[in-house]
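Quick bug: Beta-defensin output formatted oddly.
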Amino acid sequence: MTQLLLLIVALLVLGHVPPGRTEFKRCWKGQGTCRTYCTKQESFIHLCPDASLCCLSYMFRPSRPPMPDNE
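Here's what came back:
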């Protein structure tokens, strides 16, 4: 009986432990990564829901739309 009680307590405690890594949260349609800081190969786009930075690789960075010609 005490082993069962110990097992239940251990499972309850482990269930409340927050995850160790949050670097794998995705943003910007799955192209970016939510991080505390961006690497040299990444650019900051916007804030993630948890107030971390949405870092997008320069390879996936959206290009600006072309400027219209004023004729």
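Actually, after a second look the formatting is fine. The chain is about 20% helix and 25% strand. Closing.
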